[in-house]
Write a structure and sequence with these properties.
alpha+beta; 5-stranded antiparallel β-sheet; 3-stranded mixed β-sheet; binds flavin-adenine dinucleotide
Length: 502
């Protein structure tokens, strides 16, 4: 990273850290937020620079310079609007633009990307618009296709029926998610996110019996997964959850309470549910795997022989349609003792298993953002090339060219930041970097899809153009898997204060 950026960041970090140390993060949220964003931007620039060095590619070097310029401006408290950046460089980036997603990738990763791209174009593309506009279910043939490619088992070791070899390969997981999200965030791009969260928790804390019971079924796609953490009165404040699991005579558990925003809960057969098992804040939560039948559509009621009931109602949303996101009501719902993940050893310690799962959820979300913004960028490049205004193609005017150049930089920076985090995750580290990647990519996806929509003019606002769907879908990324503000303040800044960084 350039010395100027290093200096600016170090100065900012020292000043804000001192202020926060004196008062606490919550007293200085605006400053703490600025610090988290400055670090995220600087790390994105650093990742681009490492990539450009490793590849020796002059175009990658241009992108790294532009990412660094923006990170520096932000760290120094200057504007990062287009007018404050080097317009000539952005126009050049647009002029020299070419696909860079495979630049520096291994042969295996290139092959994986081309396989996934072909699959997504053939199997997902035909459904993407209709599912969004008519709020349909994700088609079963898409789920089957994802299962047949072994994608549900990417991070499940072979001994449990998955396809993960001797060493984890998080970059492969990101490539899969990018390519599916490039066509549709909801129909393809998010299918493997929830299973990955549960798999991570099971590999960390599940008993051998639980791993053998669930992992092969998840890997084969026989059982799909939903994750139920959020509640009507608590979302970001996970430690305050109230949905309760109580032990019954004989050892079974009974779940009572409401969960909100549980994506894919209808179609899934396994619900990963974080429940309160004692009254000790985050130290009183446990993870349960609740088995249920799969239901199509927007409503379901599942009644148990003993009188227990689970009701689901899909909450209408502006985007991210297809999997449907449910309100769930557990009413005296019985689960066996074996549903408690990790058994007695992990009773009341489910918070930590859930957070471990969320680290993978966050890097997944970064990749989802990269896929969606890549799609928006591709469409904007093509549209502005063909569309004429005032007698010439839109892509020949300086401002649209600079906007497109800035989009190219953001997509590359988000992608390289997520790959840098993936390398660390492979080594068993990288939780902090996954949070940075999630923060950066989610906002970048919003900005890029917004600008892509803008460059489509009126067509961008029409439902018949994919770019409006990309914008609506991208909007959710900063909300879930850790709302942007909470991620910046409570995860990233806190980690910085504790020195949990590279
Ligand atoms: C489409 C969709 C799908 C989802 N899927 C799932 C799922 O599958 N499983 C699941 O469990 N959840 C899911 N969620 C829920 C999601 O994770 C939560 O919405 C998110 O965690 C935020 O919680 P909340 O909605 O309660 O917002 P709140 O926590 O009420 O936050 C509201 C606002 O206040 C801000 N805020 C909160 N606390 C602070 C603070 N201390 N300082 C500063 N600002 C603060 C937040 O950043 C946010 O901007 C989904 C949500 C959506 C929209």
């Amino acid at each position: 990273m350039g010395r100027a950026l290093d200096r600016a960041l170090a100065g900012l970090q020292e000043r804000i850290t001192d202020e926060i140390a004196a008062t606490g993060v919550d007293e200085r949220q605006v400053a703490a937020n600025h610090l988290a964003w400055a670090v995220a931007r600087a790390e994105a620039a650093r990742a681009c620079q490492e990539w450009s060095k490793a590849t020796g590619d002059p175009f990658a070097a241009r992108l790294a310079e532009a990412a660094e310029e923006e990170a520096l401006a932000f760290a120094q408290g200057r504007s990062t609007e287009l007018g404050a950046l080097d317009a000539g460089r952005l126009v050049e980036i647009h002029a020299g633009h070419r696909a860079t997603e495979d630049l520096g990738a291994s042969g295996e990763h290139r092959l994986l990307r081309s396989t996934l791209r072909a699959f997504a174009e053939k199997e997902v593309r035909p459904h993407a618009r209709a599912v969004h506009r008519q709020d349909l279910d994700v088609p079963e043939e898409v789920i089957r296709g994802v299962a047949e490619l072994g994608l549900f088992g990417l991070s499940i070791p072979v001994e449990y029926g998955g396809t993960q070899g001797a060493a984890p390969d998080f970059r492969a997981m990101l490539i899969v998610t990018e390519e599916l999200s490039r066509v549709s965030l909801a129909v393809g791009g998010s299918l493997i996110t929830r299973p990955e969260i549960l798999v991570r928790a099971l590999l960390r804390g599940g008993t051998e019996e639980q791993r053998r019971a669930w992992l092969p079924a998840i890997a084969s796609g026989e059982k799909l997964v939903a994750v139920a953490v959020t509640e009507p009165d608590q979302g970001s404040d996970v430690a305050a959850l109230t949905c309760r699991a109580s032990r019954r005579p004989g050892g079974d558990w009974e779940i009572a309470g409401t969960k909100l925003w549980c994506t894919f809960a209808g179609r899934s057969e396994l619900l990963m549910v974080l429940c309160r098992t004692s009254d000790a804040g985050h130290r009183g939560l446990s993870v349960f795997v609740v088995e249920k039948p799969a239901f199509p559509g927007h409503h379901f009621v599942h009644r148990q022989p003993g009188g227990g009931r689970l009701t689901g109602r899909a909450i209408p949303t502006i985007g991210y349609r297809g999997m449907h996101t449910f309100e769930l009501a557990f009413d005296h719902y019985r689960v066996p003792a074996s549903a408690l993940v990790g058994g007695e050893e992990w009773l009341d310690r489910g918070f930590y298993l859930q957070m471990e799962g969320f680290a993978v959820g966050r890097i997944q979300t970064a990749a989802r953002g990269v896929g969606v913004m890549q799609a928006a960028l591709d469409d904007a490049l093509a549209y502005t090339r063909d569309r004429r205004a005032f007698g010439q193609p839109v892509a020949t005017f300086e401002l649209p060219r600079a906007m497109l150049g800035a989009m190219v930089v953001r997509v590359a920076a988000a992608r390289q930041l997520s790959y840098a985090a993936a390398r660390l995750l492979d080594e068993g580290d990288g939780q902090f970097e996954s949070s940075l990647a999630k923060l950066y990519a989610s906002r970048a996806a919003e900005v890029v899809t917004r600008d892509a929509m803008q460059l489509h003019g009126g067509m961008g606002y029409g439902e018949e153009t994919d770019v409006s769907r990309y914008f609506l879908d991208a909007r959710v990324l900063s909300i879930f898997e850790g709302a942007e503000e909470v991620l910046a303040l409570r995860v990233i800044t806190r980690s910085l204060l504790q020195g949990v960084t590279r």
